[in-house]
Specification:
By secondary structure, this protein is an alpha+beta fold. The protein has a single domain (5-96), classed as 2-Layer Sandwich (Zincin-like), CATH 3.30.2010. Helix content is 32%, strand content 18%. The chain has helices spanning 49-67, 76-92; strands at residues 5-8, 11-18, 32-35, 40-44. Helix 1 packs across helix 2. The chain is globular and about 40 Å long. The protein starts with a strand and ends in a 22-residue tail after the last helix. Bound molecules: zinc ion (ZN). Residues 58, 62, 76, 79 line the site of zinc ion.
Length: 114
């Protein structure tokens, strides 16, 4: 189960796990969605943690782009590709994950960031 809140661009979003998450039309099945007015990210309940991470990253990217005024500029396939890519890069490169409040993180390998 993921944490129950997430911060995106100064906004706190609740994370809600929903059984049988549906689109607003009440018919189309979703794995996740972001509700800006309610400050809520909804995800399908009971997914594997790997799928949960990818879906949450997908919704985070929607949130970041929407806050930047580009909500419709990026296609769903690109958002999905970025979400899978971020999950993989963070998994393969744990040093990229910030720990605590580091203001000047140094890679564990001693390599410089260029
Ligand atoms: Zn989407």
């Amino acid at each position: 189960m993921p944490p129950n809140k997430l911060y995106i661009g100064g906004i706190t979003y609740r994370i809600a796990e929903i059984e049988r998450l549906l689109a607003d039309d009440g018919r189309r099945k979703l794995s996740g969605n972001i509700r800006y007015d309610e400050c809520e990210i909804r995800i399908e309940a009971g997914m594997d943690v790997q799928s949960t991470r990818q879906i949450i990253w997908h919704e985070v990217l929607h949130g970041i782009l929407t806050q930047a005024g580009h909500c419709d500029a990026i296609k769903e396939q690109i958002i999905d590709a970025l979400a899978y890519g971020i999950v993989d890069v963070l998994k393969q490169n744990p040093w990229l994950r910030a720990k605590g409040e580091q203001s000047n993180p140094t890679p564990a390998t001693g390599e410089s960031i260029g």
